[in-house]
């Protein structure tokens, strides 16, 4: 049976109504999990070809590419991200075995070996034709959701397997407890450390928690999420981050038993801006936000990599190197909290996401920590469109 309609791929079982309560897809007998990563270089010779893969047709200025190449070169041309995904694959396999769930985990990347096309071909060779994808990306936007869906469609097209292999994708998991809990633990521990290291620190005024995520072009932000939800100019992308940050602050404050009159100051900031300076991207930049704290009551800064699932290059360079240095310049005590990585609560949560999808668990029974969720199994028409690059076929989305 074909799952291509109007040039757009849709899964065999799609939600009936655009935004109705019945948006959950039907139970599906998946036969394998597709762990889909970003990919990264694994040696100096890989750096330039990798950057070309990522930025093809994107209008990223040459200076920016040279700068980013330098970040990779500094670490021997090796991004830690592939190793993270190898470790995550093993952790998922162990969790599946522990729960006696018979689903193999196949790993493929968008931008580097092992490429998605090769993995999809291998899957079909082994007889796996109903894949449930976990992309290592939690929020809604072109770069963090739709681009994965387009690359799945491209892999099916490249391999000629669009008629044979179905690729569905678990919902965006920004507000799933498995993803959020490691950030809550991290903020709690960081606030304790800040208090221990700074005599008489007033958590209600002298600390600043900076929730950092990848900046994206403002035009992508505006299109993130379904138009029908009526998000403001920065779209679902910013709204989801703000909502999760609120949950993290409330839970960490509760864990520290702060009295109800103490509100720890926090803000959402953006990092790793790329693209030409003339193109608007989400702001403020984390370094500008740190410098802007100068002259105020702030003595300690807690940096939370809320937009990232592991300590990859953007975390190692842009946060651990640049942002911590900005804090140092202003004389602030500073720390960076962990990413989910292979935290058991995160790994368990990812397996739960696969099972709720396999079993068609009703929306009301799906764990979610913000009012925005639980997010959709199947993306709404036009969700996370890229107005710069134009329409491309994508799996796991409803037809416009
Ligand atoms: C939202 C978002 C995430 C988070 C969601 C997710 O995790 O998927 C993310 C993750 C990542 N981004 C990564 C690397 C890069 N991203 C680039 C470029 C871009 N990212 C963008 C957005 C995002 N990116 C955008 C809008 C661009 C401009 C080009 C375009 O319109 O597409 C460039 C080109 C150079 C530059 O411009 O910086 C590189 C090298 C790595 C791997 C790191 C490693 O190797 O450890 C990871 C995990
Ligand atoms: Fe990126």
What are the defining features of this structure?
Rossmann fold, iron, binds fe (ii) ion, lyase, alpha/beta, 400 residues, four-stranded parallel sheet, disordered N terminus
- Name the structural class: alpha/beta
**In percent terms, what proportion of residues is strand?**
5-15%
* Hetero groups: coproporphyrin III, fe (ii) ion
Oligomer: single chain
Which CATH class of the largest domain applies here?
Answer: Alpha Beta
Q: Assign an overall shape.
A: globular
Average pLDDT: 92
One letter per element, helices H and strands E, the order comes to EEEHHHEHEHEHEHHEHEHEH
- Per CATH, what is the topology of the largest domain? Rossmann fold
Quick one: how many beta strands? Answer: 10
Order of strands across the biggest sheet? 4-3-5-6
Terminus-to-terminus distance: 21 Å
Largest β sheet strand count, sense and barrel closure: 4 strands, parallel
Q: Show unreliable segments.
A: 1-18
The CATH architecture assignment of the largest domain turns out to be 3-Layer(aba) Sandwich
Helical percent range?
Answer: 25-40%
Structure in words:
- Strands 4-3-5-6 form a 4-stranded parallel β-sheet, with helices on both faces. Strands 8-7-9-10 form a 4-stranded parallel β-sheet, with helices on both faces. A two-stranded antiparallel sheet has the order 1-2.
- The longest helix is centred in the middle third of the chain and has 21 residues, at 177-197.
- It contains 11 helices and 10 strands.
- By secondary structure, the chain is an alpha/beta fold.
- The model is unreliable at 1-18 (pLDDT under 50).
- The structure holds coproporphyrin III (HT9) and fe (ii) ion.
């Amino acid at each position: 049976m074909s799952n291509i309609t109007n040039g757009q791929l849709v899964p065999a079982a799609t939600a009936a109504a655009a935004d109705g309560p019945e948006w959950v897809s039907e139970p599906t007998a998946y036969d394998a999990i597709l762990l889909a990563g970003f990919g990264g270089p694994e040696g100096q010779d890989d750096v330039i070809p990798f950057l070309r893969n990522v930025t093809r047709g994107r209008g990223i200025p040459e200076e920016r590419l040279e700068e980013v190449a330098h970040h990779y070169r500094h670490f021997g041309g090796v991004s830690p991200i592939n190793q993270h995904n190898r470790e995550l694959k093993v952790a998922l396999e162990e969790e599946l075995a522990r729960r006696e769930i018979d689903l193999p985990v196949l790993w493929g990347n968008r931008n580097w070996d092992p490429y998605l096309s090769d993995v999809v071909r291998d899957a079909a060779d082994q007889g796996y034709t109903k894949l449930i994808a976990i992309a290592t990306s939690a929020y809604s936007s072109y770069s963090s959701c739709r681009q994965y869906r387009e690359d799945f469609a491209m892999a099916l097209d490249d391999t000629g397997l669009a008629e044979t292999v179905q690729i569905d994708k678990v919902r965006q998991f920004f507000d799933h407890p498995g993803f959020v809990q490691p950030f809550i633990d991290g903020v709690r521990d960081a606030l304790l450390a800040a208090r221990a290291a700074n005599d008489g620190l007033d958590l209600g005024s002298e600390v600043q928690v900076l929730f950092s995520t990848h900046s994206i072009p403002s035009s992508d932000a505006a299109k993130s999420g379904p138009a029908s939800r009526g998000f403001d100019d920065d779209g679902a992308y910013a709204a989801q981050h703000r909502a999760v940050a609120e949950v993290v602050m409330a839970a960490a404050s509760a864990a520290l038993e702060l009295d109800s009159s103490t509100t720890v100051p926090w803000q959402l900031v953006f990092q790793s801006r790329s693209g030409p300076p003339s193109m608007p991207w989400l702001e403020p930049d984390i370094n500008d936000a740190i410098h802007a704290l100068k002259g105020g009551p702030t003595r300690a800064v807690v940096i939370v990599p809320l937009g990232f699932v592991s300590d990859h290059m953007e975390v190692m360079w842009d946060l651990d190197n640049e942002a911590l240095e900005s804090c140092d310049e202003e004389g602030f005590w500073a720390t960076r909290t962990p990413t989910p990585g292979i935290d058991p609560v995160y790994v368990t949560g990812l397996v739960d996401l696969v099972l709720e999808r396999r079993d068609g668990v009703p929306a009301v029974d799906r764990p979610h920590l913000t009012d925005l969720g639980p997010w959709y199994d199947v993306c709404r028409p036009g969700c996370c469109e890229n107005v710069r690059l134009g329409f491309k076929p994508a799996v796991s989305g409803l037809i416009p």
